[in-house]
Amino acid sequence: MKQQTKAQAGAKATSPNPAEPELYTFFRDTVRDLYWAENHLVKTLPKMIASASSEVLKKALAKHLSETEGHVNRLEKIFEELGEKAIAKKCDAMEGLAKEGESVIETTPKGTRARDTGIIFAAQKVEHYEIASYTGAHLLASTLGFNNVATLLQKTQTEEQRTDKLLSEMATSILMGKSKKA
């Protein structure tokens, strides 16, 4: 019978699964990608907050900024659990999504529903990327037996899904004219 590793028992994961080093490397790179993405988002969200006109949207984005800072901290805990140094790997997808969001701000008139809706849609694209990434990272952590890490990733995934739902509700409200400046 195969002996359970420390990671599989839920303890600190101090080494990769030796049976599948390529899978571990892919997982580690996925976490590094998420770490870059979340750090980049911490820099990007204040611009979105400043560009929004809806107070409800500003507050929601500010709350998400605080959550995102927590996601960065959580990823640092994950690196610690894995016995890895917290190293970011550039995330081209997040960089592109952030540029797209900046373009929305540059091409829509200040103080309009168009800009607020564009900011929401840009933020949702980011959320969808993060949801997909955290879903995959969670599956990889579970597969590799990193139960504590999987739990941390699941928590962030749930928060990202909640934010996406809130953004959808806001977009509907703004587009239906119920919350132009609310």
UniProtKB/TrEMBL annotation:
Q: Where are the transmembrane segments?
A: none
> What Pfam families does the record point to?
DUF892 (PF05974)
Write the protein's name.
YciE/YciF family protein
